[in-house]
Amino acid sequence: MGALVKFIVLIIALAVGNVIYKINQHPPVTVPPEKWWGPGEPPSKEDKSIVPFKISVSNTVLEDLQNRLKSARDFVPPLEGVQQQYGINTKLLKTVVDFWLTKYDWREREKFLNQYPQFKTKIQGLDIHYLHVKPKNVPSDVKVLPLLLLHGWPGTVREFYEIIPLLTTVQKDKNFVFEVIAPSLPGYGFSQAAAKPGLGASKVAVVFKNLMKRLGYEKYYVQGGDWGSSIGSSMALFFPEHVKGIHLNMCMSNSLLSKMKLLAGSVWPSLVVDEKHKHKLYPLGDYISNALLEFGYMHLQATKPDTVGVGLNDSPVGLAAYILEKFTTWTDPAWKNRADGGLLEKYTYAKLLDNVMIYWITNSITTSMRLYSETINKEENAFEEMGPIQVPAACALFDKEIIYQPRTILQDKYPKLVQANEYDGGHFAAFEVPETLAKDIWLAVTKIEDLPPPK
């Protein structure tokens, strides 16, 4: 009997050892090739010019928009007693559209959007648009650190307008300040869309590495949320010699070890998450149910973006409904139970419509949604980890974010995690709570700058 027990123990030990071995194995990091994404074949000589850009929309486009808003069909009334549970409430939508028609002044908003210097430059065949805001009156003993700000979907660079001055203004207690570069993702807003299939998030990381190189930056920080988090993580993974550190809102680890921890926490939550934050992750069934409720759009955009895009690109009312619904439930899931969707709690209709307008005037909703189909596929392996990221990282964990993971899980992907602070707020942190996000960025970069140099 003793020999049998020893044999069973040996088998269990070998099985556990095999699991641990597999958990710690990662495929080699393969940097995507620098493909030409523009139409046709690349020219013999690369155009490296950087051209100033200003938003300028013709009266014809604005008149067409007005006509479409005025001639929109009557909305289907919501069900009795329903707020936003079936999607955007059409009574709320009518209020927004009425504001759009009677109070929203695009020429005034155009001046607002042009307040920061903007440029375009061609990277891998695509005209990439970006804001470039430098700090003013910088003392000689204060370092200027380049910071690449990356947005996601259904956002645009509009999300960053309130946070930019908080990052580019010298702080009394800091020996550094930020110089902000905020590009529009390819196919979003004023950045050109790929003419060829395949431009997923990991390949966008290459585009933005080349953008920063074009601007003359060898080392810089990256901050991002949503797709910006994914792209920023890819930049840190592929180009650690250039990325000094990353700061993300909406951090996520998909490694096998992380999944095992998540499941183990279903039985023993304290292994994974603090008691006061347990409700954000467990019961796991509730967490998964909410994901199913909110991620239907992802399946559509990962499979049939062009079909969805036809309707949204033809109707400004439909476009606003599709986008603004996300600013309700992704800012606070409880707002689906409010007739007003809670939109004016953290935003204004003018700010929200700025974002919608950027999609409308550039005809970019279809091309923006293609990022899902180009990333969530077998080639890109969006839900598989390619290995831990070895540059210093920080995560701002907002309690109403659509994806929540605690530090114990995030450290699997970001072993050099300097902080993972918890805050009140939702998915669009830079837009919703710019002061909170800016403060966390300052804190994280201070810690990273104080780290001893890598050997």
UniProtKB/TrEMBL annotation:
Keywords: Aromatic hydrocarbons catabolism, Endoplasmic reticulum, Hydrolase, Membrane, Signal
Biological process according to GO: epoxide metabolic process
Location relative to the cell: Endoplasmic reticulum membrane; Microsome membrane
Membrane topology: Single-pass membrane protein
Protein name: Epoxide hydrolase
N-terminal signal peptide: 1-17
Stated role: Catalyzes juvenile hormone hydrolysis.
Organism of origin: Zophobas morio
